[in-house]
Amino acid sequence: MKNLEILKQKRKRGIGKVIFRFLKQNPLALFGAVVIVISILTAVLVPFLPLHDPLHQNLPNRLKPPSAEHLFGTDNFGRDVLSRVVWGGRVSLLVGIFSVAIGSLIGVTLGVISGFFGKLVDTVIMRITDILLSFPALLLAMAICAALGSNLYNVIIAISIVTVPRFSRLVRGTTLSIKEADFIEAARALGQSRWKIIVFHVLPNTFSPILVLATLWIPQAIITEASLSFLGLGIMPPTPTWGSIINEGKSYLMNAPWISISSGVVIILAVMAFNFVGDAVRDAFDPRLKGEREVGRG
Amino acid sequence: MGRYLFKTILAVIPTLFGVVTIVFFLIHLTPGDPALAILGPHATADSIRELRLSLDLDQPLYLQYFKFMRNLMQGDMGRSLVTGQPVLLETLRPLPYTIQLAVAGVLISLILGIPIGVVSAVRRNTFLDYFMRAASISGISIPVFFLAILILWVFSYHLGWFPIIGVGDTTNWRSLLHHLILPASAIGISMAVLIMRLTRSCMLEVLSQDYVRTARAKGLAEKSVILSHALKNALLPIVTVVGLYMGQLLGGAILTETVFARMGVGKLLMDAIFARDYPQVQGTVLIFACAVIFVNLTVDIIYRFLDPRIKL
């Protein structure tokens, strides 16, 4: 409730101040936001950081434990694990954020059309949504990657397709309830076109649940990408991603556990950061969504 | 009752039909020539033509689809390109090991999740509650395959308590169990986190109900109030949600089977994908997806049996 009050002040204050106060009230969300900002900055600035080349092999120096020279040690090709993890973060975050952005864009569009126009369009879109939702998320992503082939774009496509039905179902529901509101009736009476009503009246009102679901889906997308890469179906070596580093390190668990573990710990940190922020945003905006992550996790 | 069952089961048919169609087109819209992909770049023109004929790839897509549907109705999902055995048979062989893993995982998650959730709700806002909630939010953020690797690293490599890979001696139940504990724990712990959160929130809701206050007012022991009055009612949504986690459970099974190099349907799928054994991939994905649909259907029916408020 406290959070809601803060967000209600949005109109009175600048958005920056609102976010600042919101984070001050939620220490976990603040921690999460700081971690997210640092990871994104690192991912963007990584070419300028004083790191080893993540692809440079140095076989005499293979499987060396963490040291001052190599903070996270070296892998089976003598590559620096720290720089691989940092470069891997670039790919993993890119996939996570982009696939949720694309998936939510398509999902929201379909959901609004489905909810607003109803009838046959609604039936068709929701049938397809139901069918896609009946697939386990990872299995569907695996099947798409297996069929299309493994590369960055196909992984993004696969995770976007998994994301779409989650958003279309949510937005359809919200649209249905908004459609009956008086202000929509008023807009109609004023003679506004249906598309204008959708863009200017319906969509802005579906924004908060979309934001909540998106913040909670980015960590899912990151985990799904990591799972695909771990299975060898995601982005192909030698390009590092968090999942593929764990996969490569798996064979050397006995004598070089730092390879898998450093990457795994970084995944946990990133996912946790998004989860903290997502939880706080959800509590602030829409407590009704409480079960969404539990069900959507896959 | 009969009417309800009939209607529910009938409603699943279009979904099943859609799932089959999507899987078929996904596999058949693979870019490039599947025969070439299967045989590799050094294949002769003759062998490619032969394979195209045997897979009906020379026919138009809609004819392939109708033929696939017709065969599927008769339980025929084609033959594996690697072993030459029927796909259905190949999938059923490792199925018991995946079921063992899934059932053991669910059991572990319930044994851990429900009591912790109840304690967390009853001792709400104490240190114990905060600790468990912090543990659960961290637990949600751990990918199941990394959890499996950590467990493997600690208990097999370092402590040497458990075997590293495989399902064990299939004729000896002790060996099977010994090989099952670690992978099942990985799945179980990652699900227990969700069940704990759910149990906590359901218990909190139930504990504020009038009948719990009545039970307390008539002087029942707190233990009996919590266990037989509150928990019994909180269990209902838990049953449903365990069903909804089926998809996640199977995803977890694929990943854990890979980590532990365990025989199972997940490993079969992975092997088939890497061997470009398309009929086997298609069949396994289909069986996986249908299994999830049927479990959800069963849970839905059980839920209605358990909750007398829902009229049949």
How would you summarize the topology of this molecule?
The complex is a heterodimer of chains A (298) and B (312).
Chain A: H1 2-8, H2 15-25, H3 27-45, H4 81-117, H5 119-134, H6 137-148, H7 152-179, H8 182-189, H9 194-231, H10 242-250, H11 258-285, H12 292-296
Helix pairs in contact in A: 1-11, 3-4, 3-11, 4-5, 4-7, 4-9, 4-11, 5-7, 6-7, 7-9, 8-9, 9-10, 9-11, 10-11
Chain B: H1 2-28, H2 34-39, H3 45-54, H4 61-73, H5 87-92, H6 95-122, H7 127-140, H8 144-158, H9 173-207, H10 210-217, H11 222-244, H12 246-259, H13 265-274, H14 278-306
What distinguishing features does this structure have?
heterodimer, A: 298 residues, MetI-like fold, elongated, B: 312 residues, mainly alpha, 14 helices, globular
Name the helicity range of chain B. Answer: over 70%
Q: What oligomeric state best describes the polypeptide chains here?
A: heterodimer
CATH topology of the domain at 83-270 in chain A: MetI-like fold
Domain count of chain B, please report it.
2
Q: Please name the fourth-level CATH homologous superfamily of the domain at 83-270 in chain A.
A: MetI-like
Count of separate DSSP helical elements of chain A? 12
CATH class membership of the domain at 83-270 in chain A: Mainly Alpha
Protein described:
The complex is a heterodimer of chains A (298) and B (312). Chain A has helices at residues 2-8, 15-25, 27-45, 81-117, 119-134, 137-148, 152-179, 182-189, 194-231, 242-250, 258-285, 292-296. Chain A is an all-alpha fold and 298 residues long. Chain A has a domain at 83-270: MetI-like fold (Orthogonal Bundle). The two termini of chain A are 30 Å apart. Chain B is mostly helical and 312 residues long. Chain B has two domains: 2-89, no CATH class; 95-263, MetI-like (MetI-like fold, Orthogonal Bundle), CATH 1.10.3720. Chain B has helices spanning 2-28, 34-39, 45-54, 61-73, 87-92, 95-122, 127-140, 144-158, 173-207, 210-217, 222-244, 246-259, 265-274, 278-306. In chain B, helix 6 packs antiparallel against helix 7 and helix 6 (95-122) runs parallel beside helix 9. At the A-B interface, helix 5, helix 6, helix 9, helix 11 and helix 12 of A face helix 1, helix 7, helix 8, helix 9 and helix 12 of B.
